[in-house]
Structure formats: structure tokens, C-alpha cells
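notes to self, project folder thing:

trying the whole complex as one job this time. last attempt i did each chain seperately and stitching them together was a nightmare. two parts in total, labels are on each line so i dont mix them up again. if this works i'll redo the older ones the same way
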Amino acid sequence: GAVVSQHPSRVICKSGTSVKIECRSLDFQATTMFWYRQFPKKSLMLMATSNEGSKATYEQGVEKDKFLINHASLTLSTLTVTSAHPEDSSFYICSASKNNEQFFGPGTRLTVL
Amino acid sequence: DAKTTQPTSMDCAEGRAANLPCNHSTISGNEYVYWYRQIHSQGPQYIIHGLKNNETNEMASLIITEDRKSSTLILPHATLRDTAVYYCIATNTGTYKYIFGTGTRLKVLA
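result (full assembly):
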């Protein structure tokens, strides 16, 4: 199989703090991972493409200094939401590519108070 | 990536076939059509993909028109657990970024 995990599954933090979300491919290596965010009853919006060993590619309108992405190994990519604010509250989902498919993680629900 | 359009919502009776259409009229020759579904508060789940031939697997069938401008996902015997949002995506391969449209919210009725 091809399993992607995310940690944590749910996080609540205070405004102004930073939150790190991990995305792991458990049984395969992924040179490319993707990060999405999803607001309630809305579709997934691609935030950035994470490439192992190089800088992430951000979609238009996504602040790279706000959403730090690190893809340090072939099985791990991290997304850090810096100085989080209530408007950053969302469902964050990662995916990892294997062959001709993307496998999605279960998502991380971030709530910023 | 090609933009895809899908109906916002559909209902289907349990046990009947669910036919979910997708328009991708600007798809380019090397772009595949992928289908995923998302059950509430979970990550999307892969269903099927194809380039120009019809495809079938244990979950569904994918029918792509000859001009490739539209496709239909068929769930042959829908169950209550098939209630989800279904997304159609046109992209080069699974290693390329996906641009999700609004999807179709399928509700399977008992």
C-alpha cells in the first residue's frame, strides 16, 4: 500500500504562536509532496509543492514566510504556520506522489484562538 | 491544468448506479483525468484515472468521451458509504500538482 500520515490530527493554539504539522509517507519514498488547505464546505486549495532537498514552490497568494515548508527527507515534509492568527484556522492536508497517483494524509485541523 | 466543472450535488438511491459527470473541455493531449472522493473531515481517496480509454477497477468505472472533453465516473451499486464529495481533476500525472474544482456532493439515499 501507500500510506501517508499527518501529525497532529488536531491542534489548538493561541494567536501569535507557531504550529508545526508533519507529513510522512510511511511505506514509500516521495521526492514530491504537496500541501493543501481546506475551509469548511469548500474545496481543497493547493498551497505549495514540497520537493526533497530544495525550496518549496508556493502558489500565488500564499506567503512563504508565513507557511514555512521543509522537506528534509524522502519520507517527511513539515509545514510550519508562523505567528498563527484566527484566520489561519483551517484543515491542512498533505499528499505524496507515488507512481502516477497522489496519496493524501488524513488532514490536520488547526484552530487558532 | 485544465479547469473541470461538475454539478454541485447529486442524489442516488442505494443499490443503483451513480453516474457523476465532469466537463474538462480545455484538457490537453497529455493530461489524465483523475477522480478522488472525500468523506467528511478526511483526506481525499483515490478512485480511478485514465487518459483516453475507459477504465474499470474494483471501485468504479471511468468513461471518457472520444474527444476527451468530458468523462463520467460510474459507481455501479452505490452504498450509503459512498456518500462523499467527488472530485474530477485533469493533470499531467500524479506527480504534478492537482487543482481541485468544487466537486460533486453525492448523497446516497436509503
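what i see at first glance: The CA atoms of residues 13 and 22 of chain B lie 20 Å apart.
need to look closer tmrw
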